[in-house]
Design brief:
The chain is an alpha/beta fold and 365 residues long. The chain folds into two domains: 2-190, NAD(P)-binding Rossmann-like Domain (Rossmann fold, 3-Layer(aba) Sandwich); 195-362, N-(1-d-carboxylethyl)-l-norvaline Dehydrogenase, domain 2. The chain is 42% helix and 16% strand. The protein has helices at residues 10-21, 37-41, 64-67, 83-93, 109-120, 165-171, 174-177, 186-190, 195-205, 207-210, 226-245, 253-261, 268-273, 290-293, 296-309, 315-328, 332-335, 350-358; strands at 2-6, 25-29, 44-49, 53-56, 59-61, 73-76, 99-102, 127-131, 136-142, 145-151, 155-159, 180-182. Helix 1 (10-21) links the parallel strand 1 and strand 2 (25-29).
């Protein structure tokens, strides 16, 4: 199968290695050439951990037109804040109908991507889907080396309408097909985005450790104390309430982690402590990290906007957005995916978008 992977970061590198070692023809694209110079000279990714081997990538390039010449499937593994721009860039060069999977989409990523693509290219009709989370728990060591701690199980996947979900899974390469399950709707993948509650609050509440030049800390094992875990559970309850009001309940972060990693525990703190895949993951060394720059504008901001549009109190979610905005002096609500700038206002207004998320099969945009 011809597969194009957009983005040579942590999960992009892991996916390129895994799919190559499983017998697929993989093209790996990255916007910044200097970040893939080593792979351009020698296109071998050394993978260790849950997947072991040296993967020789078919093509590594920073030329998007070459990367999208003839893909069966395109996986977008870049941070979600780049989705809007990438949709436009891909629309300008994609010549054939294919399946594009945002891995992950974060909150309403597939919806944003679809409308931005169609705004530029109405002649090609890719099938666009999003995943609830990243498939791989992994870390990029160098530009050609990745450590894979675990592959998650039962990762939810949904298209914008939700009716083609099983079709997309059936199209996946054999090595990935049993890792994904079809969601009931995009609400399960978007509001079911657990990264936004697991990442933002712990990083902000450990700012002293994050900015310490003398010390590092284990993000999950040390950075998420019982008190911080309990605060995350309060944020998580607000997220679950939004999904319930939209008519498609989602599981808690605790239950998601128990299902995904086959864990036990009475509360979120216990489950995290029991997760061996999290044991050696170090905390970031800057607040300007994707746990903030991605998960707040493309996660918490649209979650808060939907909740408030529904008349819900989003107290704990709003507190974290406020804290991040104050500490980093960035207006995340202005820059993020809120209901009023998520898509073209001429296509859907905020109320109509909410109606759409509750009745996606009626959409014909």
């Amino acid at each position: 199968m011809n597969i194009t992977i957009i983005g040579a970061g942590n999960s992009g590198l892991a996916m390129a290695a895994h799919l190559t070692l499983s017998g697929n023809t993989v093209t790996l694209w990255n916007r910044t050439r200097k970040n893939i110079e080593g792979l351009l000279e020698n296109p071998i990714i050394h993978c260790r951990g849950a997947v072991e081997g040296d993967a020789t990538i078919h093509l590594v390039t920073s030329n998007l037109a070459k990367a999208l010449k003839n893909p069966d499937i395109v996986f977008v593994t870049t941070p979600a804040f780049s989705h809007k721009q990438l949709a436009t860039q891909i629309a300008l060069v994609l010549k054939k109908t294919t399946t594009i999977i945002l891995s992950p989409g974060r909150t309403f990523g597939a919806l944003e991507f679809k409308h931005e693509f169609k705004r530029v290219n109405a002649g090609v009709h890719p099938l666009i889907a999003e995943t609830q989370t990243i498939l791989y728990t992994c870390r990029k060591i160098t530009c050609n080396e990745v450590e894979m701690y675990a592959l998650k199980n039962d990762v939810l996947l949904s298209t914008v309408t939700g009716e083609e979900n099983q079709l997309v899974i059936n199209q996946l390469p054999a090595c990935l097909r049993d890792k994904f399950i079809p969601a009931e709707s995009m609400i399960e993948t978007s509001i079911g985005n657990v990264g936004m509650v697991l990442h933002c609050a712990p990083l902000l509440l450990n700012t002293g450790w994050v900015e310490s030049e003398a010390h590092s800390f284990y993000y999950y094992r040390e950075g998420i104390s019982p008190t911080i875990a309990h605060f995350i559970e309060k944020m998580d309850a607000e997220r679950q309430l939004v999904a319930m009001v939209l008519g498609n309940p989602v599981e808690s972060a605790k239950d998601w982690m128990k299902r995904t990693y086959k864990l036990t525990g009475e509360n979120l703190y216990e489950v995290i402590q029991n997760n061996d895949a999290y044991e050696t993951i170090l905390g970031p060394k800057s607040l300007l990290h994707r746990y903030i720059t991605e998960d707040i504008p493309t996660g918490l901001v649209p979650l808060e906007a939907v909740g408030k549009e529904l008349g819900l109190e989003m107290t704990h979610v709003s507190l974290i957005i406020d804290l991040a905005s104050a500490l980093l002096e960035i207006d995340f609500r202005k820059e993020g995916r809120n209901l009023h700038n998520l898509i073209d206002k001429q296509l859907l207004n905020p109320r109509a978008m909410l109606q759409f998320t509750m009745n996606p099969l009626k959409e014909d945009a």
